[in-house]
Specification:
alpha+beta, Arc Repressor Mutant, subunit A, 2 domains, eight-stranded mixed sheet, two-stranded antiparallel ribbon, 12 strands, elongated
Length: about 260
């Protein structure tokens, strides 16, 4: 029997999953005890246990069945798959607009993250959340990627600088060029203290903000440049992914010497 067929046998019946979980919770169970606990017929329990024994997932010791290390691994992999599917369903809006990432996005690093998404009834929910975070006075350093440049984000950036936060951003050349065309005047980048801007060829399919190296916001946008959802987390894997993504893009870009003026 192939690995695929073994996996199919396990997942095609919720009773088989329940049986494996029961052996993990109560190591060393008899056919009769499992039959009573799970409300399954003895014949079904016996037949399933025999197959699992053939797979090497369980073993029989003194008339009782125990989960093997292989069985523990298989059950763990199954539960990880279920968590992944649940995550994909819950974060559909985020994943739909995330686009391609050079490094695999650490899906499971978001277990304890906060997801904020705009809705039809509250289309400004995400942008409001993002601006509120960025204008927090306690932030000392911000590094990030942004696919858009707008007066609203410029206002938040000015607030960051006014609060004394060192700000380092990477923007797409197309977005920068568009912003310069809309700007009434340009000013030297060196005229702004604690601010550094790089531009990079090609599009940036999502936004990343790293706050003090301890917190990450990953923002996704629709085709019109509207921010649709934002993931806010502090896990080590998420911070490492965001840092690598930012540094790679920054190294590919070049420093911007003249900036558009978004004064309103």
């Amino acid at each position: 029997m192939t690995s695929y067929e073994s996996a199919a046998f396990l997942t095609s019946s919720s009773n088989r999953i329940r049986l494996v979980k029961a052996l993990r919770e109560e190591d060393g169970e008899t056919v009769g005890a499992l039959s009573d606990t799970l409300s399954m017929s003895r014949s079904t329990v016996h037949r399933t246990l025999r197959t699992f024994t053939d797979y090497g997932w369980i073993r029989r010791v003194d008339g009782a069945y125990r989960l093997t290390e292989a069985g523990e691994l298989v059950l763990g992999a199954y539960e990880e798959l279920i968590r992944t599917i649940e995550w994909v369903e819950e974060y559909d809006e985020f994943l739909t607009h995330l686009g391609d990432t050079e490094d695999p996005f650490p899906i499971h690093a978001t277990t304890y993250a906060t997801m904020v998404a705009s809705t039809k009834s509250d289309p400004y929910r995400t942008i409001t959340y993002l601006i509120d975070v960025l204008t927090t006075p306690s932030i000392e350093r911000v590094r990030g990627l942004t696919p858009i440049m707008s007066p609203l984000f410029a206002d938040a950036g000015r607030q960051l600088l006014d609060n004394g936060a060192r700000t380092e951003l990477v923007v797409s050349e197309e977005s920068l060029r568009s912003s310069m065309e809309r700007s009434t005047e340009l000013k030297p980048a060196e005229s702004i203290d604690d601010f550094d801007l790089h531009s990079v060829a090609g599009e940036l399919p999502f936004g990343v903000l790293i706050l003090d190296g301890e917190r990450v916001l990953v923002c996704v946008f629709d085709d019109l440049g509207n921010v649709r959802a934002c993931l806010d987390g502090e896990s080590t894997d998420l911070i490492e992914w965001a840092t690598n993504t930012y540094e790679t893009r920054r190294e590919d870009g070049h420093r911007v010497e003249m900036l558009p003026n978004f004064e309103r």
